[in-house]
Amino acid sequence: MAVALVTGAGQGIGRATALRLSVAGHRVALVGRDPAKLDAVAAELAGEALCVPADLTDAGAPDHVFGAVEREWGAVGVLVANAGTGLAAPLVETTDELWRTMLEVNLTAPFRCIRRAVPGMTAQGWGRVVVVASVVAKRGERQVAAYSASKHGVLGLVRAAADELARTGVTVNAVCPGYVDTPMTDATVATMGERLGKDPAQARALLARRQPIGRLIDPDEVAAAVLACVDNAAITGQGINVDGGTVQS
Ligand code: NAP
């Protein structure tokens, strides 16, 4: 069993993934900005947990986080780069700051974590990197140009890294969810409701109907796809859709 590190582990998809990794027997390090949320998830885990609070937009955060895990447990074998943020704005109202935030959190932070993780993985001859991207890594969507660009970018990073590492025992994949039932989607529902003059239940139903299966994805359904990437050495360089049929590929 491996040492796993999950970013954005305090809620939503990160929490669900940490739970699954723990049930599968991995030691799980939990990373996010809010220590209280990490502690709450740690208390739910089946096995060993380590909370390492950090803001991953700090350039030094990956060194701090990986160093802390290595001192306790040794090299990280499974990196789930899940932390992310999604802000919406029409293209012409997308400020430089919004653009920068999307790229820093969703693209640069995963890049720095992968760069820090890979030497330990190649030294062991085994490693698994899974990035939680999005359905908008595969198709563009109105109102989220910066978020879509960051997620397309991170899928490019995954594909390049997978090719570079293909003979090392390290696989690199992305999972690409549609709308998942998490706090991030609660925020999307609230914004949509305000924009369209709908109450939260109506806005939520609208979002659910946008997906062919007619419902939101459960965070555990995304976590199951992450675990499939961890368990299968022949899957690498993929962006696995967990989107209720939105993108067919
Ligand atoms: P969420 O509920 O908002 O959780 C995001 C997590 O990321 C939080 O635990 C947050 O923790 C952490 N985080 C955000 N910024 C961070 C930073 N600078 N440093 C460290 N941690 C940070 O989101 P989610 O729905 O579970 O989404 C997880 C991933 O899936 C994201 O990459 C998102 O883009 C992607 N995704 C989500 C959906 C969806 O419908 N929900 C769809 C497609 C893709 P703190 O606030 O404590 O730092």
From TrEMBL:
It holds the Pfam family adh_short. The lineage of its organism: Bacteria, Bacillati, Actinomycetota, Actinomycetes, Pseudonocardiales. This is SDR family oxidoreductase. Belongs to the short-chain dehydrogenases/reductases (SDR) family. It comes from Pseudonocardia humida. SUPFAM superfamilies: NAD(P)-binding Rossmann-fold domains. Signal peptide: none annotated. InterPro entries: NAD(P)-bd_dom_sf (IPR036291), Sc_DH/Rdtase_CS (IPR020904), SDR (IPR050259), SDR_fam (IPR002347). It comes from the Bacteria.
